[in-house]
Design goal:
Layout: H1 2-24, H2 31-51, H3 59-68, E1 89-96, H4 109-118, E2 120-128, H5 130-142, E3 150-153, H6 158-166, H7 174-177, H8 181-189, H9 193-197, E4 222-225, H10 226-233, H11 241-253, E5 265-267, H12 279-283, E6 304-307, E7 310-313, H13 318-332, H14 345-352, E8 359-363, H15 371-375, E9 385-388, E10 414-415, H16 422-432, H17 435-443, E11 450-452, E12 457-458, E13 466-468, H18 504-508, E14 511-512, H19 519-531, H20 548-574, H21 583-592, H22 595-611
Parallel strand pairs: 1-2, 1-3, 5-8
Antiparallel strand pairs: 3-10, 4-8, 4-9, 6-7, 11-13, 12-14
Helix pairs in contact: 1-2, 2-3, 13-20, 20-22
Length: 612
């Protein structure tokens, strides 16, 4: 027996020594491996006692006792975790669930479904929204002992995540994620995903999101009123900036609505809506430029482009100046609505959706003429509008502004240093990123909120994989009558705090019951048109991460420099600034505001991103 005791002793000491060396080198290894060392050491001690005459107990008997006392939640790797767990585990959770008002995750069908499938009870200690979420999150992070096991979604910036990671408050997940099958599959399907969630120190502190909205990539769209194209242009769509100008003159001068008044507005828009600023669409006939003056959806790297690995600011180029000159011409001649930069959505809608048609073209992420009927899958004035392809500029440029998908999202899925079982926490994230779990979180219970199907037409035009069943809101659904054990206040999770595998392929596999009246399908087809005019991916600035210090400076530059660029653009277009006389002053102002430092910081972050 003494030989067995010595063997256990040597194995335990060797493994403990290996871990000590790893920790001294700054590498945090999995708790599962530490557990093995502890188990071996315990067995070694017990067997030594046995070898010293403790009632004649054998080493085998001692090991059995050690095994029976092992922690049932210790695993060597994420791939070793099998759901449901043999015993119930409770994990304390923080979730910042935007737009919910807070308190929607505990009394939720999805939460109980997760517990049934995994045997993990999610204790949402913090289920908050808005200012309350920010306040409580700050308090938690200043009192590490109060941190929950996992942070579901926090809306942290990348620099905040990096900072908490460096402080040791968040665990690096790199090694855990190596064994997470769904996570690795998502990275294969979405090549930019891993880089997006990797911080500048090379560590990954969040599981990450995957919601590839194809039509959102091309949100800066232009819609054209088809009846006037038929009447004024014989049905031919403008394909160049010159043809666009000529067509707009016809709208202005030929009374296409036939009311005998000169009240037509060739092109209009407004600031503050979803891609309702017309400048982006027009500027891309002169150069690659994705710098909306305002947008409900954030634009990553607004105005920045990559050429041969170098970050450049498109709003300082001669081609940008030429684009502003063209828009200024439209404005001066009354072809671009003079109210574009001052009116709100109500004023715009009044002109767009009145009894008589007044507007010939407008920009927008969706069709806004009786858009409520489009959302309700009903006929309406929206059917008179068609997507207008980008038009070719005088130098042959014909591009569509393309955005990037943020896989970092709302800082989804972090594990705190207080979590005793990080392998299980990461395995839970990975489980939730399966197709089935994605649909349950988004739509609710299978058979009521969604179901699998291969019949009909999918969003991408192919064979569908699943469909939404249009389940009523939780308070309108008869849970007990439909066989559930209790009533629920909520049927699903909010999109910003949902783990999902909504790759372009899976999202495109959603069945569309009535393609001719489905808004998502209409926008998908519009994006497919714009996709052929997309700039090369290597020319688009990705969602890079900055160091703490640079992040603060970048935020400031975005406000000051970005704000000045947009202000000057409006002034150039309206004539308040002279494009010829004041252009050099505009460039000098940007230089005095620190634009070179701004670009240098982006360049450094971009270079780091490309190395990861």
């Amino acid at each position: 027996m003494l030989m067995i005791n010595l063997k256990l002793y040597k194995e335990g000491m060797k493994l403990a020594g290996d871990i000590k060396k790893e920790e001294e080198s700054g590498m945090r290894k999995r708790t599962g491996r530490k557990a093995v060392a502890m188990a071996l050491t315990s067995a070694m001690i017990l067997s030594l006692i046995g070898g010293c005459g403790n009632g004649g107990k054998t080493a085998e008997t001692s090991q059995e006792k050690s095994t029976s006392g092992e922690d049932p939640f210790q695993f060597d790797s994420v791939s070793d975790v099998k759901f449901p767990l043999k015993e119930k585990l409770t994990l304390d959770v923080f979730v910042y669930a935007t737009t919910t008002g807070g308190g929607t995750y505990q009394d939720n069908y999805v939460t109980d479904w997760i517990e049934e499938k995994t045997n993990i009870h999610l204790n949402f200690v913090y289920d908050v929204d808005g200012d309350d979420a920010k306040t409580k999150l700050n308090l938690v992070m200043t009192d590490p002992d109060s941190m929950p096991d996992i942070f579901w979604a926090t809306n942290w910036t990348k620099s905040e995540v990096l900072g908490y990671g460096k402080q040791g408050l968040l665990l690096p997940l790199n090694e855990y994620l190596e064994d997470a099958p769904n996570w690795n599959a998502l990275n294969e399907a979405s090549p930019g995903r891993k880089k997006d969630i990797t911080m500048t120190d090379g560590n990954i502190y969040t599981y990450g999101d995957d919601n590839e909205c194809f039509h959102c990539l091309y949100q800066n769209r232009m819609w054209i009123y088809k009846p006037w194209v038929e009447k004024l242009n014989g049905g031919k769509m403008p394909e160049t900036t010159q043809e666009l100008y000529d067509y707009m003159v016809k709208i202005k001068t030929q009374d296409p609505n036939g009311n005998g008044k000169n009240d037509e507005i060739p092109m209009s828009g407004y600031l503050g809506g979803w891609a309702t600023d017309p400048t982006v669409w027009m500027l891309n006939s002169f150069l690659q430029c994705n710098n909306p003056m305002s947008n409900t959806n954030p634009t990553i790297g607004a105005g920045l482009v990559v050429n041969d690995g170098k970050i450049e600011y498109s709003v300082m180029k001669d081609e940008y100046k030429e684009g502003l000159e063209f828009i200024n011409k439209l404005y001066k001649e009354g072809l671009l609505d003079p109210q574009t930069f001052t009116q709100d959505d109500k004023q715009f809608q009044s002109a767009l959706s009145g009894e008589e048609p007044l507007i010939g073209l407008f920009p927008g992420g969706t069709i806004m003429a009786e858009g409520d009927k489009l959302a309700a899958h009903q006929d309406g004035k929206w059917k008179d509008w068609e997507i207008l392809e980008p038009v070719e500029g005088p130098d042959g440029v014909r591009l569509a502004a393309k955005g990037v998908t943020s896989y970092f999202g709302t800082a989804l899925g972090s594990v705190s240093s207080n979590c005793k079982y990080p392998e299980i926490a990461v395995a839970l994230f990975d489980f939730l990123s399966s197709k089935e779990a994605t649909n349950v979180q988004v739509y609710g219970p299978e058979g009521f909120g969604w179901r699998w199907t291969n019949e009909g037409v999918a969003l991408d035009g192919g064979e569908p994989e699943y469909e939404s069943l249009g389940m009523p809101d939780a308070d309108e659904f008869d849970w007990i009558g439909n066989g559930f054990e209790k009533e629920y206040a909520n049927k699903g999770y909010v999109s910003d705090a949902t783990f999902r595998c909504s790759t372009a392929d899976f999202r495109g596999a959603l069945k569309i019951a009535d393609p001719e009246h489905d808004g998502e399908y209409v926008l998908q087809k519009a994006a497919e048109v714009y996709d052929q005019y997309a700039p090369a991916d290597e020319n688009i600035v990705p969602n890079v991460a900055f160091s703490d210090a640079d992040a603060q400076q970048i935020s400031q530059f975005t406000l000051t420099i970005g704000g000045y660029v947009n202000q000057a653009a409006v002034q150039f277009i309206t004539g308040e600034l002279d494009i010829e006389k004041d252009w050099d002053t505009y460039l000098q102002k940007l230089e005095s505001m620190g634009v070179e430092d701004y670009l240098a910081m982006y360049q450094q972050a971009y270079d780091t991103y490309m190395k990861n």
